[in-house]
Every structure is written in structure tokens, then in C-alpha cells.
Amino acid sequence: MAVDLTPPRKAVDSANAEPKAGNGRFLIADTAADAVFTREDLSEEQLLFGRAAEEFMRTEVLPRVKELYNHDWVLTRELIQKAADRDFTRLEIPEAYGGLGLDKVSTASVGEMLSLDPSFAGSLGAHTSIGTLPIVYFGNEDQRARYLPRLASGELIGAFALTEPEAGSDALSARMTATLTADGKFYSLRGQKLWITNGAFADIFTVFAKIDGQHFTAFIVERGMGVVSGADEHKLGLDGSSTTALMFDDVKVPVENVLGTIGEGHKVAFNTLNFGRVKLGTRNIGGAKQALTAATRYAKERRQFGQAVSSFGLIKHKIAEIAIRCFVGDAMVFRSLGEVDRALAAVDPNDVPAVLKTIEEFAVECSINKVWTSEALAYAVDEALQIYGGNGYSQEFPAERAYRDARITRIYEGTNEINRLIIGTRLAKSTLVGPVIATAADRGLEGGDKPLGLSDERGLLARAKRITAFALGRASKKYGKGLGSEQEVVGRLADMAIEVYALESAILRSEKMQVRGGSHAATAADIAQVFAADAADRLEQAAKNALASIEGPDAAATIDRVHALLHHGPVNTIAARRRIADAVIEANRYPL
User: pTM above the 0.90 mark?
Assistant: First the structure.
């Protein structure tokens, strides 16, 4: 029986729709702490969804993971059906088609708990997100009515087929063809797709092919139309999920199964990936929290030199650093999710073009979260394994599987390299941000030499935004339309923007917690201060690399100005990290 978990319709009250967000506005505007959504703002209903998902994972999935790792896809389908019985397959499908039509915060809260087993999370997530949302947003009335109720109920399992042997990040170079049959009733699809999650057992695929070899178009393809799956890939991680090639040899797809507009398949593909990125962060940070909690408990039990290894300074450093990433990642992800929900609350959910335009406005923020949280997860599982020492390398302990499962997160949903290019080029070309960075480039970096105080995180943030806007502006002026070809420069500019967003999000969440009080406010303040101190160093390094290329022989004076602006008083980060680690150790888990 389905659990009644009806949440509020939106995560953020649409009456408080200002200030606007998206399109990189964070870089050029000041944001107040009470204007952003944080984990502490989750409603009881939204928390209930997360708790229900956790209960499902612990009682239904985790006891049977060995069977999943042995590629029991019948069991995977059974578990997806049980997830459907609990409404977890209905979250983002409109109510008119058997779904719940929930906000992004609620769906992400479920996603965080699914990360208790990344393999099953991948299977279920591929169905509910990239396997279903193309039809939600691009399907016509007939297509929605035919497929969405059955996807919502778990009767049909969905998948997304974009990648090809010669078309990975460069999706538009796809070679799969679609040719109209003589009677005009079908398109004949020929070609191959790779790395398809749920490939062994999915019933419905969103497939991309070029009509007449030219017009990149999306199709809804049923397995019964002739889709053939290859053998399951032997993967580094996520080995409890199905990943196969798909073969199409004269697969006849009815013309009414064209999804969206002929020649505009890129809109289906890229917007679908955006939908995934906006929620992927909670799964990544959920995995980091699990790694931290497991490693902390092990460190408290493991004794060396007559004491628990959790008492050693260098182990505390690792525990604190993972905790900092968990806190900052949460701050970034829930801020973005809240901003997306606020923006969506202002548009008619039935006005699909308006919904798509709204989601696209957050492409920069979605990419920032994807990059930052996947790299935070990578750090977390690596350092967690190190805390286990030699035992971490053994399959008898949980660290090695988490380490392997995490690696894919920097590749799927668009590689981190591609996402960095999206961040840098979109900010530089933005009609909103562009004029501001152009002005910043003309104005230069003179002034503002007053040294930053020990706890002046806001002052550091303001200078970080100024330097990042300046560097973006200088790059735009020098390279113009050729900026995208200067990938190393764009990557460093993206790193600066990512750092700004992470720093601001951490500060805002910490400030909000200070106002509200509570037992974790002091730990949050320590985290914000430590993160700010290190962020300044990372920002300076990225700026030096970018500006040395942009400014050429004249870069020295500019780089000196960057150093002067980011220079801040020494912060005792060792003492602060010890306090952060002690809070985690005392709680016996990640507590924030």
C-alpha cells in the first residue's frame, strides 16, 4: 500500500519570490541569509519523505544488495515496483498522469536517502529522472497519457539512450540514423548506444538519432519494437546496476513517437541532463555523509599505540575536512533547489516552454553543484578509506565499495570538464552577467586594500566576486567568441566561480544558523571560517593561472593586486578543525 506522504506543493513560498536567482546572479549580487533555502528549512512533510526513503532502503534494498551485485535484474524490477508502491516513482510526474508533481526539494530529499546503495539509486534514478522526465516535459498529450501512468506505477521501466561509441560529451556528433519508411508511418532506427543504465531490462527508451543523417531528434522507443541489449558491462563501481549497449537494426518507431520537435533533440537531451544535475548533489553529499559516519565509527573502535585512532590529530583533520565538505555541499545544493522551486512557483506548471526556460536559467548553478559535490564525494570516500588504513583496501570493509561507486559521479550527467566549460562560457556570454563583468574588467582591481580581519568572511566574499568578475571580463575582452577554445583558461575561471558560490552558500547557511541558535551553530561557524580561509588560497591560485594567460607579460602587477585583495589575517584552522572533528566524533555520525 502506498504511504500518504503528500508534501506542500512548493518548497519556498512563491509570495517571497525576490530576490531572483539563476543565470549566475550570485556573482553580481549580494544575498541575505534569510533569502536562501537551507537544510534547516526542510518542512516536516519533506523530512517525512526522506525518512520513508531511508526506511525503504534499509528494510527492502540493503538486505539484498549481494543479489543485486550478482546482476539479479528480476530482483531490481521487483524493488523498483516496491518503490512505486511507496510512491517513489511518482514524485515528479504530474498528478494528471498518476504522479505527485512534487517540488525539487522533496524529490532530492528522497534521492539523498537512496544513496545508501548507489547501485540501486542509479537504477531507480535512471527510471524516475532521465528515463521519465523527457516525456513529462517534451511529450505531447497522447504520449503522456500512453506512457506516464505506467511509468509512475512501475509497470514500465524507463531509460535514456544518448551516448554512442563516437559521441560522448559531443552528443551532437551522433551517428545513429532515423529514416522515414516509404509508407510514411515509421522511422527506421539504425545504430548503437553505449553505457545505458537499465539497459538490460528497461521497457521504454528515450533515444536520439539523426533523421536523414542531419536532424538530431528524440524518439520514444519501446523494447518490443526491436531493441537488442548487449551484455552487462564489467564496471569499476555501481556493479549492482545494469549498464549495457543497445543495438538498433531497422527498429521501426511510429512517427507519433517523435519526442518534441524534429531537429531539436538537443533541447530534450540537454534539458534532461539539467534536470538530473539539479538533484544529483544530494545523492553525492549523502554518500559523503555515509562515508564519514562509517569512518568515524571505525576510528573510534580501532586502537593503535594504546588509544583510539580517532584521537590522533591527522585523523581528526580528515574527519573535519569531510565534515566541512558535507556542510558546504548541503548549503550549495539546498540553496539551488530552493531557488529552482521558487522560480518554478512563479510559472504555470502546464506551460512547458516556461518551465524549461526556468530550469535552463539555472544551468550554471546546476553545473556548479554537479562539479563541486562529485569532487567533494571523491575526497570523502578517498579519505574515509585512508582512515580505515589497510582494512580500507579489503572488501570485508565498506570503504572500498564506496570508493569505487563514487568514481562515476565525475563522469556521468556531463563530465566535470564539460560542466566547467558550461560554467565559464555561460557566465562570460550571459546577457545578465556580461555587462557587469565588462565593467569590472574596465574598472580594474585598484582600491580595497584594507586588510581583511580574522573573521571577515563577508569581506572576503565581496573581494572574491570582484576578482572573479574582473577575470571573466578580461577573458571575454581578449578572446571574444574564441573564449570557448581556451579551455584551460575557462576551466580556471569556472573554478573561481564555483569557489564563490560554495563560499557564499557556506556563509549564508552559517549566518542563518547563528541567528536561529541551536547546538550546532558554533560548529557551523567554525566550518564557515575554515572553509573561507582555504577558499581564499584556492581562489588566488586559480586567478593566478587564469590571469597569467589572459594578461601575458603584464600579469605580474595584476596578480599582485589579487594577492593583496585576498590577503587575510591568520586563522587557527587546526584548532577549528579539531573542534569540528570532536563534534562529529561525539555525535558518532555526521551531525549537521
Answer: yes
